[in-house]
Amino acid sequence: MSRTFLMLVRRDLLLARRQGGGSLLSITFFVLVVSLFPLGVGPAPETLERIAAGTIWVAALLSVLLSLDRMFQADLEDGSLDQLALLPLPLSLVVLAKTIAHWLTTGLPLTLAAPLLGLLMQLSPDAYGALIAAMLLGTPILSLIGAIGAALTVGVRRGGVLLTLIVTPLYIPVLIFGVSAAEAAAQGFSYSAHMLFLSAILSGAIVIAPIAAAWALKLALD
Amino acid sequence: MADAPLLQGRNLAALRGERLIFAGIGFELDNGGLLKLTGRNGAGKSTLIRMIAGLVAPFAGSLHWNGAEVSRDREAFLADLIYAGHQDGLKTALTATENLDLFARLRGTSDRDAVAALGSFGIAELADLPVRYMSAGQRRRVSLARLLMTPARLWLLDEPLTALDTGAIAQLGSVVDAHRDGGGMVIAATHADLPGQPGSVLEIVPPADADLDEDLDVDGDMEDAW
Amino acid sequence: MHRFANPTRFLRLAAAVLPFSAAVAALCLGAGVVWGLFFAPPDYQQGDTVRIMFIHVPAAMMAMGVYAGMAISSAIALIWRHAVADLIAKASAPIGATFCFICLVTGSLWGKPMWGTWWVWDARLTSMLIMLFIYLGYMALWQAFDDQTKAARAAAILALVGAINLPVIKFSVEWWNTLHQPASLITMSGPKIHESLLWPLLLMIVGFGAYYLTVLIYRVRAEIHMRRTRMLRLAQADRHAAMQAAE
After folding, report:
1. For chain A, which terminal residue's Cβ has fewer other Cβ atoms within 10 angstroms, N or C?
2. Enclosing H/E stretch for B198
3. Inter-chain contact B223–C148, Cβ cutoff 8 Å?
4. Could you give the residue ranges of the DSSP H alpha helices within chain B?
């Protein structure tokens, strides 16, 4: 069972690599959105420093949102989803495997690109550690909650827009704890409480999201 | 239990949206058996195949495998089943071999030769070609070659002849015959004549009109219509 | 198909409840508005502005209460495949969203004299705004499916996921708010509501609840009739197909 699970993760990584561009597109979008802010609010370093963590998080959140609609859609369109559902493995674990692959191809690259954007946005030097740590905990939550939305809207008319509407409100706690972790660190406070909250949400999401998404996917198969 | 057929469907019914598409379907299948599903367009051939695979939940009725209800041990049943849907289920970015190997390894099989499987359908020379460059008929053959990539007693084929030429149909016939000779079972939904040795036929007919009238009595109790 | 999913039984019960809920709604809302607007004393600090509370507080309570009801009906619908529960959840959403919207508008009207601005990112208002988005997402998901059975199940899953998330969202927003706002702002929830304000407020709360029940019954009725129409049309199509096949 665990071998099948790992094979599934590797399958999605292989497909992402072969079809190409997914991660690169997300990162490009991420950088692009962040660079709009200095153009929008002005390049004064103190202004940028003030909004740096928030801007980076909002941009990361949008990048993840944009990548969600392909999560199950491609497999539904070519019939692979049927084959995945017929593996001798619970559908919730199939979902979890695909979610892990999604995080490895979007959330993780975004986290790795974040320090560069910190430089562009004059992020306080003390905040880098907190930003990256919070993104490492927070972006998997985005993938997990996103999997529910993606599963609910797979095969649905205008699914992409609907997906955004459904998922964005559910992302708010991650945004709040993620940004305030970086802000606390910038002011020299401890950010361990933020990390604990994010860990708690992550643990809950790992349990609930695959089950909810599997329920939703069964509707698309029916 | 020895007398019970290996696969048995009892009184199956399907609901699509709010419409009853078939009801009271029963069948039996034993080692070496072939069951052909026929019926007019929209009668629910694909739905019945998907229901047997467990992709669609039955509205009523039950499915028995080895004398026990399938829902008791779905994973054992799934391990013994291959479904070839009317969609190919192939990843176009991968080659034929990669697709087949992926399918086999996800099911814990690693000793089957993808090129040989493709050879049985006459396309061994396309083994390293990405599926993206193949025609509909070639994709269909790759999709059917999956049947040979992992041991499973029950094959579920949904319109297997679509896009196949006469040569490929004959090849499918001999693959199916060999499977049945080895004790395997096949359920196929198709309009056309299946190649190979004959089997039994199940025609899916729409539920009787009288039932609809009864359920939809406007002034009366709606209970049954739900 | 299901003993309790029988819409006839629901329709009978609804017909019995409807006159009472409508009467209670009319009486309580009428009395509450008159008492609250004309007889209750103005607040020593907020003056007459405090009277907005008689709409704002019940609306906020109902916005949350209706969501809780929606989540419970969704759970019942998912577990027992109860068709009327689906319709109750579906019919509740627009009502709950409207309560949410009323709460936001009255909060904003209250904010202008008290805070000097139409909108403040106050924790309660922000949570309410997010809740409105969740309601809208739920309603949009219902709209997106042609197959009503699938729509019902998808929406039920979303309602439950939302119900699990809402406390987390509320907690995070309150936490965020304490970080960014000076605590000296007057908020609308005085724990110390004077007794003279309490009675009309209670009347309004009961009135809002009865109003919800009344509108809900009308909406669920309409949904049942729409479902009936759909089934008749399906039967018509089937009969047509059968006749053509016979020819």
Report:
1. N
2. none
3. no
4. 45-53, 74-79, 96-106, 114-120, 136-145, 166-181, 209-215
A-C Cβ pairs (cutoff 8 Å, strict): 74
- Both structure tokens of C4: 């309790």
Asked whether the beta carbons of residue A222 and residue C150 sit closer than 8 angstroms, the reply is yes
Query: Are the C-beta atoms of C90 and C140 separated by less than 8 Å?
Result: no
Nearest to C137 among A157, A165, A216 (CB): A165
Q: What average pLDDT does range C199-211 have in this prediction? A: 92
Q: Does B15 touch chain A (CB under 8 A)?
A: no
Q: Which residue has the higher pLDDT, C91 or B5?
A: C91
Which chain A residue is nearest to residue C160, measuring alpha carbons?
A: A212
Cβ distance A87 to B103 less than 8 Å, yes or no, reads no
Instruction: State the best of C238, C240, C243 to mutate against chain B, taking most chain B CBs within 10 Å.
Output: C238
Instruction: Find out whether C19 and C84 touch, Cβ atoms under 8 Å.
Output: no
**Structure-token pair, residue B1:** 């239990």
| A-B contacts (CB, under 8 Å) | 65
Task: Say whether residue A169 is in contact with chain C using an 8 A CB cutoff.
Answer: yes
Tokens of A211: 């089950």
- pLDDT-derived band at A22 (thresholds 50, 70, 90) equals confident
Interchain proximity A176–C160, CB inside 8 Å: no
Q: What is the ipTM of this complex?
A: 0.92
Question: Buried (b) or exposed (e) across C116-144, using 16+ Cβ within 10 A?
Answer: eeeebebbbbbbbbbbbbbbbbbbbbbeb
User: pTM of the full predicted structure?
Assistant: 0.90
Percentage of residues in chain A having pLDDT higher than 70: 100
User: Taking a C-beta distance cutoff of 8 angstroms, is the pair B141, B118 a contact?
Assistant: yes
Place of tokens 């029940």: C213
At what angle are helices A22-41 and A2-19 packed, to 10 degrees? Answer: 60
Closest in C7, C230, C232 to B218, CB measured:
C232
Q: Chain B: give the shortest CA distance to residue A93, in Å.
A: 13
**Residue B221 confidence (pLDDT):** 42
Residues of chain A neighbouring C156 (CB-CB closer than 8 A): none
Half-sphere exposure of C48 (CA within 13 A, CB side): 3
Backbone angles phi, psi at B209, to 5 degrees: -60, -35
Statement: residue C240 has pLDDT above 60: yes
Mean pLDDT, rounded, for A195-218: 96
- Token output for B206: 């729409």
User: In b/e form, how buried is each residue of C18-49, taking b as 16+ CB within 10 angstroms?
Assistant: eeebbebbeebbebbbebbeeebeebeebeeb
- What confidence tens digit (pLDDT) does each residue in A58-101 have? 999 999 999 998 899 999 999 999 999 999 899 999 999 999 99
pLDDT at residue C246 tops 90:
no
Nearest to B222 among C7, C148, C235 (CB): C7
Which residue, A71, A98, A53, A80, is CA-closest to A160?
A71
* Partner residue facing B212 (CB), from C228, C230, C235: C235
Report the residue from C130, C158, C165 with minimal CB separation from A152.
C158
A85 touches chain B (CB under 8 A): yes
The domain over range B1-80+153-217 is classified in CATH as 3.30.1340.30: no
Look at A201 and C168 and tell me if their CB atoms are within 8 Å: yes
Q: In the 8-state DSSP scheme, what is residue B147?
A: G
Percentage helix, strand, coil for chain C under 3-state DSSP, each rounded to 5:
85, 0, 15
